[in-house]
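P.,

For your records, the input lines for the assembly:
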Amino acid sequence: MAVSETSPAQGPAQPAIILVRPQLGENIGAAARAMLNCGLCDLRLVAPRDGWPNPMAFATASGADVVLERVQVARTLEEAVADLHHVYATTARLRDMRKHVLTPEQLAVDLHHTAALGERSGILFGPERTGLFNDEVVLAKAVVNAPLNPAFCSLNLAQGVLLIAHAWYRALDDATPPRQLASAGSRNATHEELAGFFHHLETALEASGFFRVAEMKPATIRHLRNLFQRAELSEHEVRILHGAVKALAGERHRGKAVRIGGTDAD
Amino acid sequence: MAVSETSPAQGPAQPAIILVRPQLGENIGAAARAMLNCGLCDLRLVAPRDGWPNPMAFATASGADVVLERVQVARTLEEAVADLHHVYATTARLRDMRKHVLTPEQLAVDLHHTAALGERSGILFGPERTGLFNDEVVLAKAVVNAPLNPAFCSLNLAQGVLLIAHAWYRALDDATPPRQLASAGSRNATHEELAGFFHHLETALEASGFFRVAEMKPATIRHLRNLFQRAELSEHEVRILHGAVKALAGERHRGKAVRIGGTDAD
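Structure tokens returned:
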């Protein structure tokens, strides 16, 4: 997949809809139709169960072939979001996680604001039966949840896409000022840059013996990724954090020690 | 059909959804599911093509059987709307007719207003292929039309029901839910706890030689404090961060080394 190369129609003005491990071709097609109803074209699939292309999708798209023909298929979620600056996850339940929860309308305001800054966003939808895994939700800066009947809130996949896409469409020319993040001159980090920092941090923590209790490691990593996702890091801040981890772990020190032939002063 | 006798759950507070000559059972079921997602139960069918009950409808309702079991079937549209005070028609094109055109949001305001007066309303949806006939649209006091991509505005029947029903649901208590932060059980960190973490982090960074250029130090510290402030840390997360800094800086290691009398493995 070549998500880094963005065609004009899939430019920053449009959020990507990312279906993670979708099961039914019918739902992929219906989602594409709902997207095009609202003027969205950037559909990405992560490991679709029945492969791609899927004839059932074209049957239910009812003419939204332009969306299906441009579909980008990725093997992993990380690959699918690598070029995005902002990732949101749709989920009904937030298990043991600390994240902002937005309505589709609040999301739409965010999406239009960041698009105006030239930044790319994407919204994750989980598989029909199970929804997103915790480790997938962690990748998101915030969670989106449409208010629904609490006694019956399980929404069909394409219906979920429609609620998000239509809120985006309704807000296309809405002048409500968004919640803003003053940027101090540095652009937002991409998800690829964030992933690079997580890798550095977690490798250094592993080497330091931080993960003493193996069973706790996944939850601890989720907590750490979550809090840095919430911080909406700039590219500059990611570089500072890299430097801090490097310094704390003694990586720079050791390098210098080797150069000057001395021993580690630590 | 006995629409004149309205059960409590189908009282004036709820608009009826009226599918006129629906063709596919799948769409009837999906419409029922979308209705219940938004707390609506009063579904009426006018001359469904494949009769009633329709097993395909139950298959796609995904558990919204309570709506399908109460379905009221009428032979004619006039019969289906006989007990209603206000009828609205969904249609994309208003051919040679002078009618008010409402968005789903404007309709929702009307519906809640008339319901508060004890009056009953219903919304007409035409058959999948053709939409409503002119003579059917004429029965309506106004037309409802969701803003959609003008180049691709043909909406699936159940998708149309969802847009109307969800606008109604959102307007139930116009108090739009605020932007929320799901807390995962841990309380917010106090500023004292944050200050304690900053002190720990900055002391460790100082010891590691991170602040090589003295003039840059204040700005770098501001960046670090800022990003952690933005993350809105919980008390639990602050403890994890303390542990991470401690591990990275080798504090725990050194402690252990002293206890067991060995040397720092670093």
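Two observations worth noting. Confidence is low (pLDDT under 50) at residues 1-11, 252-266 of chain B. The first helix of chain B runs from residue 25 to 37.

Regards
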